[in-house]
């Protein structure tokens, strides 16, 4: 454990909280998936799917992406995804034209609603894919989001 | 000299009569409620109206001098002074004053010595997108952009355009490339006050914002038949 | 039916997006953004700082008089700038916060004004930004009503008004160039016209704001500094007299607006 | 030093809606500083949430999640007064845990 980390926990006065949580079995690390380096470094959807353990994704109308058609700024683009596919296990958000496609991946645990949202960076106008894993298979929905330049210009 | 320029001014008039409202958006007059405010309300006992000299002194005390943006930027030119008063009062410039300012502006225009007005529209496209330059955060001598899209629609494909100036989509296609058009466009970019004393558009040539070569590139963006503006 | 469908597709190709379409979609983006504002994180940090004993005098800011009495924070941003008898001049919120840090906590003016704004993206927000975020957040819902009965308050407004129309610099710009006409946009960003009450209210009540383009909350002092940068004037001094007068002008113009800051913006 | 999160958990019928704001730079590892050097990546990698000791969310973030991340999710169950605990961990090993009471 590095010093910085220790300070962080101490400063947040959450040491007791974390300890209590672990001893109570609240944070069984095994319940949470590890960060998948290969998936987050993949350059396109096919490679992301491969890294996640899939092959191809089938288009699905049961995945709903809520996002603007035009983003006033690419640094913050709100994207929410809802899946109506039975047995949804995970939801991933991919930005096709980013240097690495995968932005975020959410594991849908028993009890989690298959409806999540976050905000992503987009370097330029691009397709945004929502990839859903359900019953071991992959499904995808796509939406184009235009990123605009803004403000006084400099 | 003056006679030589007259035709361009005439062209400008013909070109923009239909669009005068959008061409010359002076700030709206001060609201009437303030005009009728009683003197007592406007000046509570002891309150004084500031003089122009006080305002300049106060502004100078409020800004920092730096090599890339000196305090002399707060010394107003006669045109800046006249247009400040016109927009504050909501009253147009006196005609004689206006004509004099416009003539002086037109006389400031330097046309290209080699007689070539059009550069490379592709470079012009980048200049139109670039909004940097002449800020206190820039270095002296940094290349500036024209930032045309801040105010104008130009290439139809660029949706992030402002509306302070008129749309320039199809500029060359609509107007052609005759000498008066070309020279008028050059003068408008070099010193837009030539045709409208209190125009909002910066003096890209006269104020040294863009170089002659850059203005040629912007000209090509507007007038070159190959430019996306004219597709 | 098929014909209409084909025609619709052709039409959509020929006319990609109308100005109204674009505006609608930008509004949608703003609506989605408003759903979560990271400025709240800074407000939390600012509240801790406000209540913490700090500085050479080891005092908290809780005794600070921001214009509605010592210790009162709620609603102050809706009545500032205003005249303060203890310094015999008009102060804006940020000047007053710095004033209290000097008088109550013993910090020096020089250290507080050296670098009040954090750098873009790369830097943790400053204590000044955090304190401002907290105080401003405590005015949400308050009606803007700057006092104008003291001669110095009125003079501040009149000076601010003149400055608003002052054209200068290599671009010949005044504040009024962009903010004195209805319906103007720079790129896709609409520009409030301060001669219209509803516009002025919307502008005054939504600053400070978290700027997503910068990943940081920016204060009203920063807003003016950066407007002048874009205007190509020199660098505005933090807490300068001109800044206070212009904020007074904007606040008086925004009378009766409802404070909703820190907001979130592009 | 990591700043606290802002967590809102609201019971709506038989589900609880959770909205989380995290203070984090989310540096991409692609940006250059003023000297032209690449600023190393520094971003949250995992976010987990529990309710009554039960995991209700697990997310993995890459550097393309926006600075000061916002995350919304919903889980079945939850009653007013119960706690939701959220933890994030970043690629430098920094971590932060905060909790919110369901309202």
Structural account:
The complex is a heterotetramer of chains A (154), B (231), C (266) and D (103). With 154 residues, chain A is of the alpha+beta class. Chain A folds into two domains: 1-32, no CATH class; 35-147, SoxY domain (Immunoglobulin-like, Sandwich). Chain A contains four helices and nine strands. The longest helix of chain A has 9 residues, at 3-11. Chain A starts with a helix and ends in a 7-residue tail after the last strand. The relative contact order of chain A is 0.20. Chain B contains eleven helices and one strand. Chain B is globular. The two termini of chain B are 36 Å apart. Chain C is mostly helical. Chain C has eleven helices and eight strands. In chain C, the strands form three sheets. Chain C has a three-stranded mixed beta sheet. A two-stranded antiparallel sheet of chain C has the order 1-2. In chain C, strands 3-4 form a two-stranded antiparallel sheet. In chain C, a hairpin with a 4-residue loop joins strand 5 and strand 6 (216-218). The termini of chain C are far apart. Chain D contains no helices and seven strands. Chain D has one domain (6-27, 41-101): Immunoglobulin-like, CATH 2.60.40. The two termini of chain D are 29 Å apart. Chains in contact: A-B, A-C, A-D, B-C, C-D. Chains B and C meet through helix 5, strand 1 and helix 6 of B and helix 7, helix 8, strand 3, helix 10 and strand 7 of C.
In summary, what is this structure?
Chain B is an all-alpha fold. Chain B contains eleven helices and one strand; from the N terminus they run αααααβαααααα. Chain B has helices spanning 2-16, 20-23, 32-35, 39-42, 52-62, 78-89, 95-107, 121-129, 171-175, 179-190, 212-223; one strand at residues 63-64.
CATH architecture of chain C: Orthogonal Bundle
Name the CATH homologous superfamily of chain D. Answer: Immunoglobulins
* CATH 2nd-level architecture of chain D: Sandwich
- Count up the helices of chain C: 11
Which class of secondary structure composition applies to the elements of chain C?
mainly alpha
The 3D shape of chain C can be described as globular
Low-confidence segments of chain C, ≥5 residues, pLDDT <50?
Answer: 4-14
Radius of gyration of chain C: 21 Å
Order of helices and strands of chain D: EEEEEEE
Pattern of helices and strands of chain C: HHHEEHHHHHEEHEEHEHE
Give the total of domains of chain D: 1
Strand elements of chain D, count: 7
- Can you tell me the residue ranges of chain D where pLDDT is under 50 for at least 5 consecutive residues? none
Strand order of the largest sheet of chain D: 4-3-6-7
For this structure, what is the CATH class of chain C? Mainly Alpha
Measured between the Cα atoms of the first and last residue of chain D, the distance is 29 Å
